[in-house]
C-alpha cells in the first residue's frame, strides 16, 4: 500500500513509515541531538507527539486528513539516540471522522499512548473556495 498523506513531511523530525496496511501504520522515529531539550539528552515531547500524529495520519491515509483532537500520555522519557516505534490502529470510523489509537515504544517498553481524532474533509483544509 502506498502512503497518500503528509508526503512533504520532514521524516528526520517525524519518523519513517515502515509498515502500512488498511487502517494501520507503523512509524519509526530515530531521535537525534536536534530534538534534545536539555543537557541530559531528553527529547522534547513535541517530537514524540509529532511522530505519533504522523502515524495516525498514515493509518487513515487520505491526502486531506487532519488532526482535530488528541488525548495522550507520555509514559516514560525518550532520550537522544532512542528509536521510537509508533503503531497506529483505527478504532472507529464514522463518515469523515476516525478515532485512532497510537502507542509508542522504545526497545519494547511503552513510552507513549494516545487517541487521535481525525477528520477528512472533501478537499484540502487550506482550499477556501
TrEMBL record:
Q: Which InterPro entries match?
A: Acyl-CoA_thioesterase_PaaI (IPR052723), HotDog_dom_sf (IPR029069), Thioestr_dom (IPR006683)
Q: Which domain of life is it from?
A: Bacteria
Q: Give all residue intervals belonging to the Thioesterase domain.
A: 41-103
Q: A Gene Ontology MF term for this entry?
A: acyl-CoA hydrolase activity
> Mind telling me which PANTHER family this protein's record contains?
ACYL-COENZYME A THIOESTERASE PAAI
**What protein am I looking at?**
Acyl-coenzyme A thioesterase PaaI, contains HGG motif
Give the organism, scientific name. Answer: Nitratiruptor tergarcus DSM 16512
Amino acid at each position: 500500500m502506498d502512503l497518500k498523506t503528509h508526503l512533504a513531511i520532514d521524516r528526520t523530525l517525524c519518523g519513517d513509515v515502515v509498515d502500512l496496511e488498511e487502517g494501520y501504520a507503523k512509524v519509526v522515529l530515530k531521535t537525534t541531538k536536534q530534538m534534545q531539550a536539555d543537557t541530559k539528552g531528553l527529547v522534547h515531547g513535541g517530537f514524540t507527539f509529532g511522530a505519533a500524529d504522523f502515524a495516525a495520519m498514515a493509518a487513515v491515509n487520505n491526502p486531506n486528513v487532519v488532526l482535530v483532537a488528541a488525548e495522550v500520555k507520555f509514559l516514560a522519557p525518550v532520550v537522544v539516540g532512542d528509536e521510537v516505534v509508533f503503531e497506529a490502529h483505527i478504532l472507529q470510523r464514522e463518515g469523515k471522522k476516525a478515532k485512532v489509537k497510537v502507542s509508542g515504544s522504545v526497545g519494547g517498553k511503552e513510552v507513549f499512548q494516545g487517541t487521535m481524532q481525525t477528520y477528512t474533509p472533501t478537499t484540502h483544509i487550506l482550499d477556501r473556495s
